[in-house]
Amino acid sequence: MIELRSDTFTLPTVGMRDAMFSAPLGDDVFGEDPTVNNLQVKVAELFGMENALFCPSGTMTNQIAISAHVSKGQEVICDELSHIYLYEGGGIMANAGASVKLLKGDLGRLSKDQIANAISPDDIHACESKLVSLENTVNKGGGSIYTSESLQEIADFCKHASIPLHLDGARIFNAMAASGQNPKQFGQWFDSISVCLSKGLGAPIGSVLLGSNDFIKKARRIRKRLGGGWRQAGLLAAAGIYALDNQVERLKDDHARATQIGLACEGLAWVSEVMPVTTNIVIIKLKDDIKASLKVAELDSLGIKCAPFGPQYIRFVTHLNFDDEALYKFIKIIKQ
Question: The CATH number of the domain where 279 resides is what?
Answer without folding.
Answer: 3.90.1150.10
